[in-house]
Amino acid sequence: MGDSIETGESLDLLLARQPVFNKSQDVVAYVLLYRNDDEQAPHTINDHLATSSVILNTYASICEDGQVRSLPCYIKLTDKTLMAENFPELPKEHFILEILGHSDITPEFVERVKELGQQGYRLALSDFKPVKKFKPLLNLIHILKLDMQAIESDKLHDLVRTLRPYNLELLADKVETQEEFRQCHELGFSLYQGYFLSKPEPVKGKKLGSSKVLLMQMMVELQSPTATAQSVEQLVVNDPLLTYRILRVVNSAAFSLQREIESLSHAISLLGFEQIRKWVSLFLVTDTQDKPEELTRSMLVRGRMCELLAEMLGRHQPINNFITGLFSKLDVLLDMEMQELLEQVPLQADVKAALLTHEGQLGQILQQVSQYESGDFDDMDLLLDKSFYEAAYRHSLTWSQQVMMSLSEK
Question: How far apart, in whole angstroms, are the C-alpha atoms of residue 159 and residue 294?
Fold first, then answer.
């Protein structure tokens, strides 16, 4: 790690992405989140969409099962942008145009939506309510977003039934829990958006498995003042698979080393305890088979972005920011309450405080990164110029992809 950020083409706005899932909880698209209170934002985003490869190469890119591919992105369009004469020619396979529910649905607006559909664009409508003004759009759009927090659950079944004749793909938006996901699944929704993946379903009395315990023992040893490369290597001598996995990742593109590393003690002597501690943490969170890949991906992005912001701010031991960001969803990954989990995990007191209550400098950066990921840009108390946040986020997306690639190699 420690590699510098190559910002490449600069985006002059805060931009994040949120996944859209299918019934199997695989990511099938991303929603682009950007600051929309800025009068210039629609123009800025359109300029970038029309001319920039940054969004397609980074924001739309995903690594699944070791393969990198590009997913379509939902882009929210204001009435003004949608009706503009100079509407940009966007690659239709890469972008889904999202019409906002508070749009002024005039006959001219309906005609414009019809035109865009005839040109081959996929069209989505958000914040739908069963009121008369939306009816002219239902035969023109392809995807209908229903806000799960705005519709009473006892009315949802009837609403879905009345929408069936339109043959729309239904997207359940703002799905907050696994229980809500299951309800929408039963009602026939095909797409899902929201933070349901970020909420644990605690299993009472759950304990960490043996491979997790070994990784935790390594973390403790790596923090010990008397630790040596040999004492750490001795811990995993009976687990050749773990040693192999660590060496494979250390030799991957995420590290950009000039020479092959052949043993764990060699890796420690070359990279130091801190870097190996980072990778042990990483294996702790990625060695879980029964969770969607997106959870691992989001943990990697969050950890790396926390670390990068700490580096940019000149904070002491940025690796602790990495571990804080990475472990902030460990409760979800392991289906344990965070408090209970931290009693079994040997972390420093400041990391634990940041994870539980966003306390201290570690907690401050974790909170900012969480807000950035959610598109809550107005709530952020910016510590740096906004361009640094976007560059850190974009770099973290690329870095997480490299790590996912190296972890999926067999």
Answer: 30
* Three-state secondary structure string covering 321-345: HHHHHHHCCHHHHHCCCHHHHHHHC
- Structure pTM? 0.86
Number of H helices, E strands in the chain: 18, 10
Domain boundaries, the chain: 15-198, 210-408
What dotted CATH number matches 15-198? 3.20.20.450
290 neighbors 298 (Cβ within 8 angstroms): no
Q: How far is CA 213 from the centre of its chain?
A: 27
Is the Cβ–Cβ distance between 172 and 146 less than 8 Å?
yes
Which three-class secondary structure state does DSSP give residue 13?
A: coil
Q: What is the pLDDT of residues 157-200, one digit of tens each?
A: 999 999 999 999 999 999 999 899 999 999 999 999 999 888 87
Q: What's the CA angle centered on 47, arms 136 and 42, to 5 degrees?
A: 50
Which CATH code is given to the segment(s) 210-408? Answer: 1.10.3210.10
- Which tokens in the block code for residue 344? 């079994």
pLDDT tens-digit profile of 197-250?
888 777 776 766 667 777 777 877 877 778 888 888 888 877 788 788 778 877
